[in-house]
Amino acid sequence: MSMHTVVLGDSGTSPEDVIAVARDGARVELSAQAVAALDASRRHIEELAAKPEPVYGVSTGFGALAVRHISPGLRAELQRNIVRSHAAGMGPHVEREVVRALMFLRLKTLASGRTGVRSEVARSIAALLNAGITPVVHEYGSLGCSGDLAPLSHCALTLMGEGEAEGPDGTVEPAAELLAAHGITPVELREKEGLALLNGTDGMLGMLLLACADLARLFTSADITAALTLEALLGTDKVLAPELHAIRPHPGQAASAANMLKVLAGSGLTGHHQDDAPRVQDAYSVRCAPQVAGAGRDTLAHALTVARRELASAVDNPVVLPDGRVESNGNFHGAPVAYVLDFLAVAAADLASIAERRTDRLLDKNRSHGLPPFLAHDAGVDSGLMIAQYTQAALVSEMKRLAVPSSADSIPSSAMQEDHVSMGWSAARKLRNAVDALTRVVAVELYAAARAVELRAVGGRLTPGAASRAIVDALREAGVDGPGPDRFLSPDLAVAERFVGTGALVRAAESVTGELA
Prior knowledge:
Blueprint: E1 5-8, H1 15-24, E2 27-30, H2 32-49, H3 75-86, E3 90-93, H4 96-110, H5 119-131, E4 134-135, E5 138-140, H6 149-159, E6 164-166, E7 172-174, H7 175-181, H8 193-198, H9 202-232, H10 242-246, H11 251-264, H12 284-287, H13 289-311, E8 319-320, E9 326-327, H14 335-363, H15 386-402, H16 424-457, H17 466-477, H18 490-501, H19 504-513
Parallel strand pairs: 1-2
Antiparallel strand pairs: 3-5, 4-6, 6-7, 8-9
């Protein structure tokens, strides 16, 4: 577990805070300010609960059942029942990092003092996170509206000491046993608390923030592999000149071009496009790499803007306003998050598409400007990287399917009370798959481009730049062998995938270039 501590309530929550808790096991604490806000809003809820007038979520049923006024003697049962009945997820278990992000983000909203829960409820969630107890949450159960209902309900169920959870060692056990082993008392829910625990967009927001962190690394990685391919194809780096990108001032495009220029600095391979088979211009997949990756970078910047706004939000229904009013609202609708989740899946698919086209160009002797067919040792006897490109193409095809928007769909629920939903959870789940696929696609381009650069350097007439040499050396040290006769390729590709996914590729390049965007 991380020794880092994230304190809720003193200042705003950052994307880095979420990543620290979700992935690095950072501890969570509530500030005195947060506890005071929780206690103040709770007093308003208790005052309303004592009045005869019905208040949604406090003294009524939920959704289409909100027409029934609930007597005081049944209100604790009402809150328990909403958690139990809504914990209706099905399918595979959701990843630990996603559940931790979801729990932390729900706690962040509770700590805002806008939901009306008691401070002990918030402290109990923090205790679960700090103990490394992760509720079992299932793949299916959220429509991205009225919150990520089933996923959050499974978390609330663990808080009540019911259902199943994963311990810090990864073993799934009854939640009651895990709580007892860590000295955590199950929560007895009171008015509004069950509703407040499950009425947020925390799952889709958590997955958005995790994906943004991964995509930031992958956009840089794709700039690096595009530069290696340009180098291996003896292309020109003149198209990367800052003045050319200044006249079309998209910031992401300029950043990608600058990254590629840094990687190519000092290369003896670039600029030979006029040699044996003269080219006026490089192909689009090489020449337009900054434009495509840059557009993805700008999409990512927009997604982070939406994510930061959502981090600054208190999503619940009803909410406790600063003047004490408790008001119904529609802020739980996931449309803002769902749209950017889908948008990122489109950008990821297109980045994968252009990377695959560059890989194919490296392998085709008719377009690779002197490289051996499929980068094979003895073409005909050896197949080289022929089937690695097949794998890459299959991944790209899958990513195109994943780019079909979830947010354009809606299936009414709750007897037509909830008659338009965002499907944001589904958008987030498919984006996670797209991020994994993009990592593999970039890894295949890296694998091919590194081999091609080495083949160009045979004999010493043309030498790659220092950054390329550092990348190839690091890849070889990681366990990927260089050019040679055919061998079992899957293990090499798996190492290349880890090399990209862990950030080792970026670190290897930056050991020469300095920090890349």
